[in-house]
Records
---
Amino acid sequence: MTVAALPWRDQRPITLNTEKFVRLPDEIAQRLLSRAIAQAGNEGPVQLAKLEALYDVLRETYATKTPRLRRTLAGALVTLTRDRLVVERAPPRAEARNKGL
């Protein structure tokens, strides 16, 4: 099974088909999610425990009637809807915006 995705370049959002993503074996889905976060994020490597926790929440949320979730991890913003899983660079934190960074 393949997961449709656009090429990962130019800081564009990484978009995956949610239904296909949740059908992947857990280890493969977590590895794919980790690589997408590492590509989009800017805060260093993804911690395994946090990745596993995010993955569990994504799967639980997808199983609900109206899945919608937004979380950040390692500088990446992960958004889940019924159709798409989008990983993109997270907006700057409030303190960074206030300092003009």
Note: Residues 14-98 form a domain with the Uridine Diphospho-n-acetylenolpyruvylglucosamine Reductase; domain 3 fold (CATH 3.30.465).
---
Amino acid sequence: MSTTTTATAKVSLTEQLSCAEHELGMRRRVYTRWVTERRMAQEKADHEINSMAAIVETVRRAKLIDEAAHEMFPGLHGGDR
């Protein structure tokens, strides 16, 4: 798999948010099981889940700001469109 700055720039905020929300859900399901199975410490699971939740919130806010900017400045280039 090849990753470049150009490829990364083509992922919309909507797609990023969807991916981050999916990852958060997976972490909540999997890490809960891993803690029960003693494969992961509760503190580590909490930190990883909270970190991804913060990412979700950051992307959500960025998306809202981007949408507001497009409403205020319809000719604005870039963003999620």
Note: The chain has one domain: 13-72.
